[in-house]
Amino acid sequence: MAKLGKRTRAAREAVAGKENLSVEDAVALVKANATSKFDETIEIAMNLGVDTRHADQMVRGVVGLPNGTGKAMRVAVFARGPKADEAKEAGADIVGAEDLMETIQGGTIEFDRCIATPDMMPIVGRLGKVLGPRNLMPNPKVGTVTMDVKAAVEAAKGGEVQFKAEKGGVVHAGVGKASFDEAKLAENVRAFVSAVAKAKPSGAKGTYMKKIALSSTMGPGVTLDVAAASGE
């Protein structure tokens, strides 16, 4: 077994035996152990009681974190004419049509969110195998297939986070940076948990939220009290 460094060993000792914490206590503990030289991302992971192989148990949605994510979001928009101009004016990083499709097909994906107007979906649809696995495929259910390009770009730039249950029913996302105030991080965590709770699918049976954990990029994770975090 590899020998643990002093920082890693100290972080693990700090969280040892601490489980089912309140949101505030978990945030404080994770933030205190985010001691890397860079500003670590605070990440949430939720284990849900769903089987994503069934369509009526899929969990996906979007939430605008009240204090943003602290991450500069790169946004690509598929649009033409006035809507392309609207996207550029709203701050989109990349705007295009067939040319953007060819760039992506060539293996260049330099964006974190993809938005498209409805008329562009025949073109975007050809990129399903590339964008789908990366959770970048525009989808009307989360507001990324829309004629209101300006609002979609501004929401993405302003701290909106998409989530989708992966295999095993796990949902995860970044909910801020270690440099954020504890109160702002706690507010973001509660907003994210609330959004996932509201996205409970009709086919979910038994316990929906099984486990919630919080960690920083390089730090150990701690578990949250599910009932307290979800406001039950």
Our estimate of the beta-strand percent is 15-25%
Helix and strand string, N-terminal first? HHEEEHEHEHHHEEHEEH
Low-confidence stretches: none
Content-based structural category = alpha/beta
N→C terminal distance: 42 Å
Shape: globular
Percent of residues in helices comes to 25-40%
Descriptive account of the structure:
The chain has 232 residues and is of the alpha/beta class. Helices cover 33% and strands 20% of the residues. The chain is built from 9 helices and 9 strands. The chain has a 4-stranded antiparallel sheet with strand order 7-1-8-9, covered by helices on one side. Strands 4-3-5 form a 3-stranded parallel sheet, with helices on both faces. It has a two-stranded antiparallel ribbon with strand order 2-6. It is globular and about 55 Å long. The N and C termini lie far apart (42 Å). The model has no long low-confidence stretch (mean pLDDT 91).
Name the features.
four-stranded antiparallel β-sheet, 9 helices, alpha/beta, three-stranded parallel β-sheet, 232 residues, single chain, globular
